[in-house]
Q: What sequence folds into this?
């Protein structure tokens, strides 16, 4: 009798403790998922109730050149930041994995951009990318001058071909420390005796890296790649901060930015923006599924 | 070559590469600092001066006294960030405690559902949540949408803390129950104090996310006096686009608090990332 009363009390406390999170689940996740699918089939400007229009929003999306431009820029961003960002992070993680004098300071410096506000980082890099007075062109000009090359350097954020790459470079700098921390943790898991055994067997540094470290590190590399790809498709702030006035080419417009403009700037086209949100989510789900399938082929799990 | 000499040479090479790269990584911050203390004329000088000839503290005074009111923006940022942090810690720890230490029907299903929410990109819930906040609750141009949701938990926090609570020894509770402690007492007096390292980790990340968030303030706030620093900086970018020293001074003000937080709680940051892939 006593135990059942105790069990009943425990149950009650269990529901009481989880109640706020359950309310949050319904209000901020489950409910909105249902709503966004419904809105995506409606015309809705928040002034009048949603009006059912069938697949009109999705047809409009298919024919919207700005959406395709935004998707293209987003893809360049992902293709630029993911492989390059991870390769650089891996190189630095291998260097930072040694016990050297001042190694803690190095690790701290590499991580600083990760915690800094992207807004501040965006302002700093806009300044660095200025054509005539920016740090980048001043440094490049000096190096080219020393090599005897005469070149006109572009205004990186204004030029429609370089603008998105300027965003990529800034994002790699900002995200490098994050990837390094995860890869460093992965490197800790690689058994030292395995590399030592390979060394005794006469394997050089490259062979040890290629046949011992890399296979053992592959689950971590995979994890970093998934996180970076998903994050890359959701990019908004880095591109937004490097925007320039009167960019008629929409050279750094991303998918999330397009959703933002459609929903919150000018006419609130909530239905159309919802359709874009749904499509973006489906792209992200599909990519995750592909990556999980591919993983079986090359990731070495212990 | 003798292996020890080779080892030393390769360490020296690694150190040199790291030293040069660290300078390159830190250069944008140093450039921000140097520019923030220059006059606009000196900032535009070619070749540039490495350090301001005469530090212009005036730039910071302008930020705090002109219509920008950096002080007020700072307080707005701080208010939102600490409320979001306190709310997240409370709501997530309560749910995580129940999911890890109490038995009740539906517990495992509930945990799976919370885990599943981690897979949902925020762009999906973005628009309906905005409609709820503005049309439903009338919270347009208030700070409420930026922190009230934190009172209702999130998948990351619940997952992180549940793992920690699962690791606590079972006898703790048995002893406490015999002493007549209710689950509320066990949660508040035993579990929470023991979970301090995990709470610090979740806390610093929540503070950081909230402080650095731009999109929330951008869509919910319209009047300047409610802006936190992030939204304020985009305003500054629009108003004083050509005044780089002023913009760098603003960037510096927004960066210093989170960098200080990071330096204080470095271990907690690294642990949070390696445990769950929390993003900075």
A:
């Amino acid at each position: 009798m006593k135990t059942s009363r105790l069990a009943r009390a425990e149950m009650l406390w269990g529901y009481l403790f989880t109640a706020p999170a359950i309310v949050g689940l319904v209000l901020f996740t489950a409910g909105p998922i249902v709503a966004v699918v419904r809105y995506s089939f409606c015309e809705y400007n928040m002034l009048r109730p949603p009006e059912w229009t069938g697949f009109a929003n999705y047809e409009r999306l298919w024919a919207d050149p700005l959406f395709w431009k935004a998707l293209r820029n987003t893809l360049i961003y992902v293709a630029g930041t993911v492989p390059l960002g991870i390769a650089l992070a891996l190189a630095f993680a291998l260097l930072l994995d040694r016990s050297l004098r001042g190694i803690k300071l190095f690790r701290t410096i590499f991580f600083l951009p990760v915690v800094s506000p992207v807004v501040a980082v965006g302002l700093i890099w806009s300044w660095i990318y200025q054509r005539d007075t920016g740090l980048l062109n001043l440094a490049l000009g000096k190096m080219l001058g020393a090599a005897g090359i005469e070149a006109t350097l572009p205004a990186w954020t204004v030029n429609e071909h370089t603008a998105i790459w300027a965003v990529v470079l800034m994002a790699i700098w900002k995200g490098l420390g994050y990837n390094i921390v995860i890869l460093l943790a992965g490197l800790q898991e690689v058994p030292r005796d395995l590399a030592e055994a390979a060394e005794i067997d006469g394997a050089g540094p490259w062979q040890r890296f290629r046949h011992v470290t890399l296979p053992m590190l592959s689950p971590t590399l995979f994890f970093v790649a998934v996180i970076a790809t998903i994050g890359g498709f959701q990019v908004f702030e880095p591109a937004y901060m490097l925007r320039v006035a009167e960019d008629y080419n929409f050279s750094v417009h991303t998918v999330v930015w397009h959703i933002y403009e459609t929903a919150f700037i000018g006419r609130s086209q909530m239905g159309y923006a919802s359709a874009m949100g749904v499509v973006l989510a489906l792209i992200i789900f599909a990519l995750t599924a592909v990556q999980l399938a591919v993983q079986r082929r090359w990731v070495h799990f212990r | 070559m003798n292996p020890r000499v080779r080892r030393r040479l390769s360490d020296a090479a690694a150190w040199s590469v790291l030293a040069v790269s660290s300078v390159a990584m830190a250069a944008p911050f140093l450039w921000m600092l140097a520019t923030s203390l220059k006059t606009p004329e000196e900032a535009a000088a070619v070749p540039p001066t490495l350090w301001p000839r005469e530090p212009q503290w005036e730039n910071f005074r302008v930020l705090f006294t002109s219509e920008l009111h950096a002080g007020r923006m700072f307080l707005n940022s701080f208010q939102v960030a600490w409320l979001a942090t306190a709310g997240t810690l409370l709501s997530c720890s309560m749910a995580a405690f129940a999911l890890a230490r109490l038995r009740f029907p539906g517990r495992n299903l509930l945990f799976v559902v919370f885990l599943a929410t981690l897979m949902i990109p925020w762009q999906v819930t973005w628009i309906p949540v905005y409609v709820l906040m503005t049309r439903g609750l009338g919270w347009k141009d208030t700070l409420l949408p930026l922190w009230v949701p934190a009172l209702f938990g999130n998948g990351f926090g619940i997952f992180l803390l549940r793992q920690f609570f699962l690791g606590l020894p079972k006898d703790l509770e048995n002893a406490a129950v015999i002493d007549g402690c209710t689950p509320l007492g066990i949660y508040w007096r035993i579990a929470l104090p023991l979970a301090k390292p995990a709470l610090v980790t979740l806390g610093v990340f929540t503070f950081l996310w909230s402080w650095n968030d731009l999109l929330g303030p951008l869509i919910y706030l319209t009047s300047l006096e409610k802006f936190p620093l992030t939204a304020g900086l985009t305003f500054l970018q629009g108003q004083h686009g050509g005044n780089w020293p002023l913009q760098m001074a603003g960037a510096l003000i927004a960066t210093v608090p989170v960098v200080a937080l990071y330096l204080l709680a470095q271990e907690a940051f690294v642990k949070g990332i390696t445990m769950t892939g929390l993003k900075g």
Q: What stands out?
A: Chain A has one domain: 57-298. The longest helix of chain A spans residues 2-39. Chain A has a mean pLDDT of 91.
